[in-house]
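Sanity check

After download, print the first record. It should look like this:
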Amino acid sequence: MESWIKMFSSLKHNRGQQLGSLFVVLTIICFLGTTSQLLTHLHEATWSFILWWILKTFVSTVVLWVPIAIGATQQRRRFNRQVVVIALWVVGAVTFIWAKFTTQPVTTAAQPSPELYVVQQVFITWLISSGLFLFAQPLQKLCHRWPTITRRHWLIGLSVVFLLVNLISGYDAFGFHRGTSLIWFIYLFALGDWLVNDRKWLQKWSNGRYAILTITSLLFASLITWLNMNRVDYSPHSDLTPNTHYLLGINPYQPFLLLSCLIMAAWFFRKGGQGKKDDLLPVTGILLLNLLGLPMIFTPLLLPRTTWQVALILGFVILIVLGGVLFLINFLGNKISWQLNYRSFLNWFKKICKNYWPVLLTYLILWVITLVSFAILWDGKFTMVQWMLTERSKIITVNVLIVFAINLILMAITNRWWISSGITVIFYLGWFGASVLKIAARNEPIIPTDISTLTAPGAMLGMVNKWLIIFTVIAFIAVIIACWQLEKRYGNHSRFNPYVRICAAVISCGFLFSFNFANHSNSIVYKQLQNINDTPYFYSQLRGAKMNGTLLQFVNNIDVHVMNKPAGYSAATMNRIAKRYSKVGAKINQQRTHKSVGKQNLVFVLSESYSDPARVPGMKVSGNPIPYLHRLKKQSTSGLMLSSGYGGGTANMEYQALTGLSIASFSPTLPTPYSQLVPYQKRTFTINNLFNYSIGIHPFSANLYSRKTVYKKFGFNKFYHFDGGNKLTYTQKIHNSPRVSDDSAYQEVTLNLKRHPHGKFVQLATMQNHMPYGPDYYAKNNFHVSGKGFNTPEQKAQIETYIQGIHYTDQALKKWIKQLDSLQQPTTVVWYGDHLPGIYHGLPMGKYGTQLHETDYFIYSNAAARKANQNRLTWQHQIVGPNNFAAMALAQMDVKVSPYYALMTAVAEKIPATSLPTNGTAKNNSAHQGGTDFVDARGKHVKLNAHQKKLFHDYQLVQYDLTAGHHYLMKDSFLKQVAK
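Expected structure tokens:
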């Protein structure tokens, strides 16, 4: 009780404590008002709104003045800062965890952006400020090496430059990293230390001048912060649109806010002397930072309806708890004498470095090699290397740990550190050199399937320049000799005892072995890799290597298996399936005319990101951008295609259409067959193998999805693209769009239909409607949207640009179909959109998943084909999967089927449309959760009946046999020859 009386007596006579107490009260008021979303429900441009915003701006300076106050606190009494910081960390850990797991109330705020936080960067400021408070004395000694006047000149100059640079260009200078870096907080600390030691210079201004400057700067800072948080966006269709956003709180990294804080701090510190209790000021500030990070604890008490009585009671409770915690921390800091001896800690650290410097040196060398490897992968672009260092440092660390684990395993075997390190460094350099050579040759890094090439070292070395081999051998010998000498000189000090060797081996092997679960979506390894933003980019292994490093990209591909073996798989089972579908095929063929495709042409058109926007739930489109497609679908085999992707997955739709196989049956660790499966198959079978001549057309890069390799494996005779190979003739673009137009793509198809003999297959993958969708792509957007599907004017403009693009596709399609009808060659076209563009927002997949995976398709026969095939149509207006297209095309072409296509025909007729889950869990860049959705003609998810399950099991057996099994049915009698 006596301590409390002394504290309040001190408060009565201490101006600093009085101002501090006032700030605490104002902070609590602002915190409770923000948590109860007061500002969200106030009308702008009213006095209550303005006053509240000024208060919020004033309180937000806590993020700036706490580091300044820590620097200004020149401790003159015995006060155990280590115990104080430990107590602050305990309070912070308990409260932040409490806030994280507090169940939040369900609110139905009318405003789109309710309040939550007073100010941003609270947690990082709390954490670093507590560290600054712990190490304040040695940092102040470092600052005091320079005279006060020197620090004044440098800090004022730095502050002026910071102010001007931010005002003129907005550039984030000096490594401040938008107010989140250690350099920023040390700068604030140094400001506080200078101000408190330069009082005579601060006293040149009177209290009146300080008051005027403080009020003026605070008002101006309030205006600037409001303008920064309430931007007005302009759209040519929506005019000026206010974009109010209070959810994240005020950003403290603003020059005028810092200026206001410095003026207030200078006014506060100009009075000489420092009270005995003033060192509690930064502790109070750290506790306030802790409080400002805890709105989640109080929202259940204040929302959805707030009363002033509840807020008042909570305010008193917070004030009492805050005072009690402060009193307890002050008591602990004064009464507990235990401290960690910094000198002993430093000596221990020096001993560790002395005993284990070879280990630290090896790790450093491996880290440098890893960083250099990223620089080479990014072609020496400094900005990308900087980005890897600042944004993907954890990825760099994982790469280093992988090769360091190999080093430890060698050490466990040899117990010779330098020899082990030398071998590891040579291996790492050799690994990266081999990766660079493979990237140059095949545009992809080393992946696990390349290990098989080690069985033919002669053939591999024959592809490498002999001088490079000689240089490598010489370097290898030189490194080994150097390491041997280091081992002789320092090796005795770098030995592990047997227990350490066993532990090192077990931990390292366990670490490396854990990557066998890297693509198991429920494994800890998978979740940790996701946390560090490891995206394998299976569709582009080179991109994966650039983003993740060659080693991590390699291990990303370890946990990949093609497909789980279906029950009952055996040679006998596959023989029975062959006989069964020979009979099914013979029955089908009784209704077909042509024994082969003969002189008929078949064109598969994958129309990039094409889907009728009128089907997007809740979104309305002004006018009809695709009238010709709607008319054409009524006159031909048509309907909806169930895509396995949203916003991506082009190659997967193409794979399913060409092979007739379903990606849903593959392992979740195989999200991209084009990149992960086809390049390594000894033999493949696709619909184009039924034709005498095959042509691939893709007016873009052929490196994505390994298309060059894939089309070669599939037996295409020519492949037209932009990466060498056969040259495209038509490459025109529309206005400012960066993509080749669909009209040009269709002209390329027509040219090749005329150029080569009859009986050909053409695969076209268009690019016109590929993302992004810049607002300046087309001269004018004639179609506008309203309702759902977008949250901002930018998103709305994206959608409207996309719709204008598919309108141009509709016009090009009309022109092309007319050209096809004039051809004398019987030509059938399978035309489909691969997936919806990933530009629709606010539509949950759990509710609208099916609609967001439905695209348009049609199968059209030109006049010559209709005449030859008796004007056949098949399964009009159904929902189908891309794996059904080959069987449907053969039916429309009136071509007799092999046992394989008899099975595909049965699947198309009797199994609902099949895809990966449409709830948003399917991924294209990394492993997914797997699963299969079946959607019927009404768009409803259904389960298979007993007969359908048996048929689907046969389908899976055949798919497994052709891709991952023993290839019992990989023969012409099953795949190509007409069933009898």
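If your output differs, re-run the checksum step. Summary of this record's structure: The first strand starts at residue 230 and ends at 235.
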